[in-house]
């Protein structure tokens, strides 16, 4: 059953990791997808041309989500090219981990800009189109770290907790127009990046999770499909932990 047929989604940070998984899963569910990347042009173009064979429209855009004008331009281009914006997934994010004692002002600001300001930029950029349609689903990628905090990640945790407050406020502001806004809080998700970590350390993380495994990009993508589709039509302002029970 295709749950997203006829819908257009903008997904930020779709060139690798979780974002790439969301792009692939959305295409499987019949969505037309416009996704962004920061610098991975080659892999983004490859993903777009590969998935375009699936009978839907898929296009990659270089766009810095931390930049207000870039976000405005992106939304305008997608609207022109795809005709509507039904779903926005604010997935792009970075880490610059350090203990508070050592963290620089620049690294604090950078993480807030890319992870949190980007969510403001993109939500504002698609708001007008969704208001006109009187329908829309916005999904923001938070983290268990934004719910619980984490030593060595003050900047990242602040950005991800900020996303939760933003999400709930947008849900309250736009609910009357049937625009829903929810957040996903992934736990430990195994991507190409975590594949480079020491296997023993990763195994000890897996054992500490109730479901005894790390999550996959598909686990997050499936939660996105649910929140993007009409199946979740009465759900807004929520944070869905997709973490194998980590925070339980
Ligand atoms: N992996 C986990 O365990 C985990 C857990 C909880 C939450 N999350 C969150 O889930 C999201 C995806 O994580 P991930 O592990 O898949 O990350 P990732 O593999 O590092 O991929 C990040 C993606 O974001 C893009 N990006 C980075 N800066 C950008 C910018 N300024 N503008 C536009 N795009 C930008 C990257 O593009 P380029 O390829 O061009 O650099 C890439 O496509 C992030 O928000 C992260 O905080 C991840």
UniProtKB/TrEMBL annotation:
Query: Biological process (GO) annotations?
Result: fatty acid biosynthetic process
List the catalytic activities from the record: a (3R)-hydroxyacyl-[ACP] + NADP(+) = a 3-oxoacyl-[ACP] + NADPH + H(+)
Q: What is its EC number?
A: 1.1.1.100
* Active site positions, chain numbering: 156 (proton acceptor)
Q: Which residues bind NADP(+)?
A: 13-16, 91, 156-160, 189
Pathway info? Lipid metabolism; fatty acid biosynthesis
Spell out the InterPro entries in the cross-references: 3oxo_ACP_reduc, KR_dom, NAD(P)-bd_dom_sf, Sc_DH/Rdtase_CS, SDR, SDR_fam
Key words, A-Z:
Fatty acid biosynthesis, Fatty acid metabolism, Lipid biosynthesis, Lipid metabolism, NADP, Oxidoreductase
- Give the first-level EC class, as a single word: oxidoreductase
**PROSITE patterns with a match to the protein in the record:** ADH_SHORT (PS00061)
What is the annotated role of this protein in its UniProt record? Catalyzes the NADPH-dependent reduction of beta-ketoacyl-ACP substrates to beta-hydroxyacyl-ACP products, the first reductive step in the elongation cycle of fatty acid biosynthesis.
Subunit composition and interactions: Homotetramer.
Q: What is this protein called?
A: 3-oxoacyl-[acyl-carrier-protein] reductase
